[in-house]
Amino acid sequence: MHSPIERKQPSFSLFLFLCITITFKIAIAFNIAIAFNVSTLTFGESYSPLFSKFNIQLSPDDKTVRLLLNRFSGSGIISSDYYNYGFFSASIKMPSRYTAGIVVAFYTSNVDTFEYNHDELDIEFLGNVQGKAWRFQTNVYGNGSVSRGREERYRMWFDPSKDSHRYSILWTPKNIIFYVDEIPIREVIRNEAMRGDYPSKPMSVYATIWDASSWATNGGKKKVDYRYQPFIAEFKDLVLQGCVVDPVDQIPSSNCSDSNAALMAADFATVSAEARKSMRLFRQRYMYYSYCYDTLRYPVPPPECLIVPSEREMFKSSGGLKGKIRFGGSNRRRRRAKRRSDAAIAASGR
Length: 350
Known about the structure:
Distance between the termini: 28 Å
Number of domains: 1
Strand content: 25-35%
Largest sheet: 9 strands, antiparallel
CATH topology: Jelly Rolls
Low-confidence stretches: 1-13, 19-34, 325-346
Mean pLDDT: 84
Order of helices and strands: HHEEEEEEEEEEEEEEHHEHEH
CATH architecture: Sandwich
Strand order of the largest sheet: 1-4-13-6-7-8-9-15-16
Radius of gyration: 20 Å
């Protein structure tokens, strides 16, 4: 990683990692209890199998679904309905042990209905090499603009295979927010100059696990190792909150006006000052690629990009991090900066 653990201080590094993990668990548990006022659904109320039903396992109470990947196939589920904007969430526990090359995805899309001009909102978990932090990315596509993807990539500050954590996508006519637990990590505010690049057509919600050995981990250098199969991603606390529509209806449904107004009035539809502080700290600490700073790909930043000078200084023209600029100075100073950053994110997330 960008700040490798020094061999001379393994005990201190382990202690620091445990302290940070415990701090975040306390904050996350508090947040889940009081923050988002949403109702959860059973699998039968919300989803159906998408592919490889033989690799999908349901709990006896129908509240938890396990998606398996083995050498025969991955697996996936799809929401039973299409939504015209909404809030979509699930508590997910990632596969454990060696998971290089594996992608677990929670996302919205309408590619099945709009093959050539589909919309999509992605949260994709990119596996890990044992002992290293997991990485994940978010992406936004609108109107088939696959050549204009809006990727951001991040490192996890916890091990997502140890416990379930809540991941959420808010999608309204005005903004898109990605959440990890109740901490916002990214907001896209609709800009009229985006035109059709802002997702606006009804979408389904998907959850999948699959073999992405060709690209997911270290650019494809690390492959899926099926000696550790089956790889299991667990989904529970399923939330699908939005206006259900017919995806092929060419006339926007007036029935969604009240639903969308209620959606935009919800507590999770606005990033408060404290939550924005959490988001800023998260991005400074854990974001390692942003399309907004990729001037090789976009000489002129896309219209929705809000260029933050402190962020811009961190990135090369390729949109990737500039070496160790994130924690300049001595190792001791870098460790102090990390402790302060993690503690501040946890505190402001409450």
